[in-house]
Amino acid sequence: MASPSDIALAHRLADAARAEIQSLFRTVIESEAKGDASPVTLADRNAEAAMRKLIEAECSADGIHGEEYGVKDGVSGRQWVLDPIDGTTAFLAGRPIFGTLIALLADGFPVLGIIDQPILGERWLGVAGQETTFNGKRVKARLCPELDKATIATTGPHYFSVEQGDKFMALAGQTDHKRMVMGGDCYNYGCLASGQIDIVAEAGLKLHDYAALVPVVEGAGGVMGDWRGEPLHAGSDGTVLAIGDPARLEDVVEILA
Fold this sequence. Notes:
Blueprint lengths: L3 H19 L8 E3 L5 E3 H17 L4 E4 L3 E3 L5 E9 L1 H5 L6 E8 L2 E9 L4 E6 L5 E2 L2 E2 L13 E3 L7 H11 L8 E2 L4 H7 L5 E4 L4 H4 L2 H7 L3 E3 L14 E4 L5 H8 L1
Helix pairs in contact: 1-2, 5-7
């Protein structure tokens, strides 16, 4: 489980990343294409470096899994998972709907997660066994008695394979697709935890993309899993599903199957 000192450190990590990102937002900044063709900037690298420095100073026995600087093995059975800017494309476009993701895993499962939007000053904190907070105040995902009234979101159709795209559109067709949200990356999950979105479905995600989201969504009363409805962990297949009202899980999984 996450201790008070873990929570305090997670906030300091978010503060450190926020300072690096704020200083470069909407400035002339170059990007490079990584091996998977996704963009990376100096802001991504500086923010992760600042977080890693704190972890190595205060929790040297813990492992680190970062998007930009890879994996450092630990000996404690715990691992900090960092995505300094989830939504670098939005960052480069000057749109404040990206976020910094910070997770703490114990034996491969997320027990603490932060979604931090550094420009708007918004922060969701989720801790296993506790209620999710948004800027220090408790938040709750909303109920969704009927699937056809649900608002669904995804970052973009280009992240799906053809088969996955067909499944997503079949699900979207059963929801209130006129209010479907495209774009948003991790920000969509924060909005789901706060009761503005009902379903988020994505594919092709890596551990650093989803680990922090799980405690945030579940602490707000929602449920997360892969497209089969199985819990997310370090070895999940990259399909990710978040639902604000757990009563809709069976309906959604049936369509995606």
